[in-house]
Structure formats: C-alpha cells, structure tokens
Design goal:
Elements (H helix, E strand, L loop, with lengths): L15 E4 L3 H12 L5 E5 L10 E4 L1 H10 L2 H5 L12 E4 H10 L6 E3 L3 E7 L4 E6 L4 E2 L3 E4 L6 H5 L6 E14 L11 E3 L8 E6 L4 E8 L10 H11 L5 H8 L7 E7 L2 H6 L3 E2 L2 E3 L2 H4 L8 H24 L4 H4 L2 H34 L3 H14 L15
Parallel strand pairs: 1-2, 1-9, 2-5, 9-16
Antiparallel strand pairs: 3-4, 6-7, 7-8, 10-13, 10-14, 11-12, 12-13, 15-16
Helix pairs in contact: 1-4, 1-10, 2-10, 10-12, 12-13
Pfam families: FAD_binding_3 (PF01494)
Protein name: OLC1v1015802C1
InterPro entries: FAD-bd, FAD/NAD-bd_sf, MOase
Length: 395
C-alpha cells in the first residue's frame, strides 16, 4: 500500500472502524453506540450477517456483559435456565448475533469488505486498510474482531493460531418436535476414563438441543461435508449411550460443522502485542482458545465492554479540560487501548492456560506430558467455576 491513503464511503478519517461482524465486533459496535460514539462502522467480509453456527454456552459472566449491552433480557427469553453455578443458559448463535446487530443503528455494518493488507501511515499515525477490491480506508481508530485468521492480529505481529495434532470438534443442533424431556443441565459423556472422545449436550429450549463431540486421535482426513460429518461422527461414537447416538442421528444437517481445535499458547498471551497506537484487537483475534470451558463468546463480550469503557473514560476526562477535542489525539487513544490490554491480559492468560492444559490431556500420547498437565490443572484451577463469577463491570 502507498503511504498516502484516502477514505472510502464518505469516511472522514476520524471514524472508529471495526473489522469483523461476529459476536465480538457487533458487541463492540453496540457498546460504542451506547456510550454515544456516532461515527462507528463495522466492515464484514461476508455478503450478509454471519448467523451460521450452532450455539454458545453463556455463563453468568457473559450475561453480565450482555446486560451492560442492553440485550440480556431479550436473549433470556430465547433459552431455558440450566442447572449449575450461577446463571447458565445455552443460546443459538443466530439469536445472539441477531440481537446484537438489531440493536445497532441502520447501516452500521458494511458487507463484502475483505481486508487483504494493513500498513501504518507514519505521517498521520493512523492505520490503513486495503480491501480485496483495491479500496483503501484510513480511520482514526481500528479494532480488529476478525477471528482466528485476523489480518489485524497479523499486523500487530501475532503468530497464526496453533492446531492440536489430533483434536477436532463436531457441533450440531437436534430438534425434538414433541419435546426432549431432558433435565435442564449440561451433561458430558465418555465411554471410559482413558477415552479422548467426549460428548456434551446442553438444552436450549424444551424442544431444541445443542450438542458437541470432541474427537481425538484424528488422522487429518475428517470430512467437512455435513452428510459425511454425521456419518463419520456416528462411526466414532459407537459404544456411547443410545440416547447420545440418537441425538446425532436426528440432528439437523444444516447445523452440523467440524473444526480442528485451534488455540494460542499461554506464553503468546503473556507476551503478545495486542495494541499499537490506535489499533487493538479482541475476541478470537486476541485470545483464540479451545472450547472446553465454553467461554469464547463470553470473553469477547467482556472484551467489548472493557475496551469501550476505557476509551469512553479517556474521552470524558479530556472533554472536561480546555480544548479537549484537540487533546483527543493518537496518543490518548493509544493510552486507552494500553489500559484495556493491561486489564484483560491476566484473565485471558488464566483461561488460555486452563483450556490449553485440557487440550494437552486430550491430545498427547505421552503419559508424562499428560500427567504433568493434570497436576498443573489440579494445582492452578481447583475452582472450576471461578471464571464464571467474574464481573466485567459497568460499561
């Protein structure tokens, strides 16, 4: 990209740009909107809102963030309360995404914009984005919410996410027209203690069930076509209870998906660069972690609340001083983002370490490595529900 850049779509160079309209990007845009930021645009590479996917477990910490965003109560109507520690429900991802997007002003999201390159303009100290159609944008503030293959994270110098050698996950939804009569609780099943294959199920409503299968010892040839995913999954869960097998057999083909489990190493979280000037990241772009604790969406929601609170507080303190508008410079935006990263790093490190250790236990063939991971998990994370009691605070 050339050093000199021009804004597109009438941008004035002062706007806040968010890359990615997933849960994190939409939550950040909504948080900014609720705090009075007017010039906010979300650029999404897809042609429409990405509502595909299955469901997300939402613990009490996630609900606290949703309440700060103003969409908690309407989403509570979409999912039954599950038994466990604190408030715990399972939400269809489609319901979560639609609730966040619907609360935004019209035309906040622009679709069909795929970022292919980034470069800092050292004259203005503003980031530059180049899209795949050749258009270039130079906003005042850039927040990367563009997932595990984040171009913004790459710009900040973060390495691509890592893959566990043999771990993958299949997710699906199963509808029971006459009701499933299952207890409102999160159930995990194994064939035996040494088996790496794990089945989990969470009721969403009295008729809809979300389930996942964590598969180990994969050889890299697992299919992605939904029909083949179902066939392969049924083959790999032979020996599980009949109700679990039936759950997979009855699942909606359109909901089925398979992914290799990816993560960021804990030491990358500890030393990683999550901010440069007026550029920062959140959600999977920042802290992609295995799904074993069901905290991916909740952490992205927490990120959004805390990031926007820091930015808003910085602006509010400046507006009270003479010439506050001029003082709100690159330096002050950077200060707000630095505080956000500082506030998030330890919590993200703790959760990333916990999920990484669980992944090692499921993935490794080494008895010694497995034993070390189990011991560390028992020592460091005796309280398995501690992370759900976290409160991200007021927006």
């Amino acid at each position: 990209m050339e050093e000199e850049m021009v804004s597109i779509e009438g941008g004035n160079g002062r706007e806040i740009v968010i890359v990615g309209a997933g849960v994190g990007g939409l939550a950040t845009a909504l948080a900014l909107h609720r705090k009075g930021f007017k010039d906010v645009t979300v650029y999404e590479r897809s042609a429409s809102l990405r509502v595909e996917g299955t469901a997300v477990g939402m613990y009490a910490n996630g609900w606290r963030a949703l309440d700060q965003l103003g969409v908690g109560n309407q989403l509570r109507e979409k999912a039954i309360l599950l038994q466990g520690t604190g408030e715990f429900r399972c939400l269809k991802r489609k319901d979560l995404v639609n609730a966040l997007a619907s609360a935004l002003p019209p035309d906040t999201i622009k679709f069909g914009y795929n970022v292919v390159a980034m470069k800092m303009n050292h004259k203005t100290m503003s980031p530059g984005l180049q899209f795949d159609d050749g258009k270039v944008l130079q906003p005042e503030v850039l927040i990367g919410c563009d997932g595990s293959n984040s171009k913004v994270a790459e710009f900040l110098g973060l390495k691509p996410a890592s893959l566990f050698n043999t771990l993958g996950a299949v997710r699906g939804l199963t509808n029971y027209p006459n009701g499933h009569s299952l207890r409102p609780t999160f159930v995990r099943m194994r064939r035996h203690k040494r088996d790496g294959t794990l089945i989990g199920r969470l009721p969403i409503t009295d008729k809809l069930l979300y389930w996942f299968v964590v598969l180990s010892r994969l050889d890299g040839n697992f299919p992605y076509d939904p029909k083949l995913v179902k066939q392969a999954t049924l083959e790999m869960i032979k020996g599980f209870p009949a109700e679990a097998v039936e759950m997979v057999e009855m699942s909606d083909l359109e909901s089925l998906s398979f992914t290799h489990i990816r993560y960021r190493h804990p030491w990358e979280i500890l030393v990683g660069k999550f901010q440069q000037g007026s550029v920062t990241i959140l959600g999977d772009a920042m802290h992609l972690m295995p799904p074993f604790t069901g905290q991916g969406a909740s952490f992205a929601l927490e990120d959004a609340v805390i990031l926007v609170r820091n930015l808003s507080n910085k602006i509010s303190s400046l507006d009270q001083s003479e010439g506050g508008q001029q003082i709100m410079s690159h330096k002050n935006i950077a200060g707000a983002f630095e505080q956000y990263v500082k506030e998030r790093r330890i919590r993200i490190l703790q959760m990333s370490t916990q999920t990484y250790l669980i992944g090692v236990i499921l993935d490794t063939k080494s008895f010694l490595a497995k034993l070390i991971a189990i011991i560390m998990l028992l020592i460091l994370f005796r309280d398995q529900s501690k992370h759900t009691r976290y409160d991200c605070g007021k927006l």
